[in-house]
Amino acid sequence: MINLIENAFNHLDRIAIRNNHRNYTYRQVLKESEKIASALLEDKVDLNEARIAFIVAPSFEYACIQWGIWRAGGIAVPLCVKHPFDAIKYVIEDAQAEAVVFSYGYRALIEPLFQDFELRRIPIEAVMLSVGEEKPRLPQISLDRRGMIIYTSGTTGKAKGVVSTHQNIEAQIKSLVTSWEWTKEDHILNILPLHHVHGIINILSCALWSGACCEFLEKFEVKKVFDVFCRQEVNLFMAVPTIYYRLIHYWKELTATDQQKIAASFKNFRLMVSGSAALPISTLDEWEKISGHTLLERYGMTEMGMAISNPYRGTRKPGHIGVALAGVTIRIADENNHTVVDGISGEIQVKGPNVFKEYWKKPSETEGSFIDGWFKTGDIAVFEKGSYKILGRNSVDIIKSGGYKISTLEIEEVLRKHSAIEDCAVVGIPDEEWGEIIGASLIMTRDQETTTAIKEWLKDKLPGYKIPRKYLIQTDLPRNVMGKVTKKALQKLFIEGANK
Ligand code: MLC
Ligand code: AMP
Predict the structure, then answer these.
(1) Domain containing 488: what range?
(2) Residue nearest to atom 9 of ligand 2 (CA)
(3) Does 500 score more than 70 pLDDT?
(4) How far apart are CA 324 and CA 309, in angstroms?
């Protein structure tokens, strides 16, 4: 039994979702998700973990499709609305999806999929307009079944599908609902993409678990965020550091009158959270000055939801991520996977019901990411003075930009397909707004090819956030004695170049 959905029966007439100035109750989410489940099942009794991909804007429809897939016994595979066709095709192929649920706005983008694969096409508008069976028979879903696959970049090139069971999803939700004291009176604004855990679990699912309201903006726009704040209904906000950076810089340009209007709305909030990337202390301080709220910084990952958090009540330590969340066990381990004493740095390793089941169809990578039941995050931290502090990552091949995880290897693989590029190396460059931005060093076979043309060429191969911003044309890449590219040296070249 999926408790997230069962809970909704306790809140039938409460508002679950708001988008496009319309309110939708829990009763409506249940009714529409039942219709979707029935359409997905056709004459089957259970989808038995069939992968159902879906692409819709953040909306009431999104929540109904996700629940509809779950109620029919399928695995939900959310697609990124900003991905170009190639990236979407990769997910469909890798997940071996059986159907795609989509809204008309994405029909042109996904149309070629139906020529390449045997896929059921399910336009959501048509399903929602249909009358639906009176009471369709839906399967009983046990919590140990797979519920969701989220694609995330790793250290091995192409994105991997992170498989979570309903048990994992429930553990991730419950730990946050308890620690951050969610109630049915809460109202949260969701401006994050809905193909990652921050938007899906921390915001949408925690709200729906609690009988609260989740309000969507189709996409992040600073002015619209402040406009919603000014209505004084929203009392919870969660975002990545880049978004707080943008809000701060926009605020600074406002007139004193406009600033006062927004300032009044901050009194309505009980909690503001930052995560998905390191929160610079300058952002924490500036936001505190503007809003009067000390951002609660927490730490998580697609593979485990949230694991470590500063306290809801109590002192939030700048530059630190807090302590293990309820139900999560953490250790810091050295290179030999032995637990280290406090004050010594090492890798964060995690155990608990929140930790994912497997990488989809990648048993050796799944096995390699665990040691004695501990999930190896690849993040380096130290426990000092009662709190964890992130120090970095053990791989230079992972970039975090604006909260998105990006694999340098994936970008290099695409760049090497360009006929004018002989070799290349991609690195993350520290950046105040984005955390890191992507830099690509290129060795060209043709001098006349411009980086503008290369950026253009990349557009239908990679989503915008994976396209390098900085380029360095070189005759050779910095290498060590073994001939391996030294990415740290390359990073330095970019940083020195930027400082000139
Ligand atoms: C957009 N661009 C980015 C980018 N986002 N480039 C690098 N990194 C990013 N994150 C590009 C666009 O393609 C565009 O390129 C240019 O930047 C300007 O775009 P924009 O319109 O100004 O950006 P915007 O669409 O407003 O997006 C910014 C953002 C977005 C911060 C709102 O990046 C975002 O939603 N980030 C959140 C990601 C997230 O939810 N991560 C959680 C993962 S889960 P051009 O060339 O077209 O101009 C996880 C676990 C955990 O990490 O702990 O939570
Ligand atoms: P993702 O794979 O997109 O879920 O990203 C997870 C990664 O985001 C983690 O492994 C960390 O590297 C990073 N991350 C999340 N929260 C924080 C934080 N508060 N501080 C620093 N890094 C973070």
Answers:
(1) 398-499
(2) 301
(3) no
(4) 6
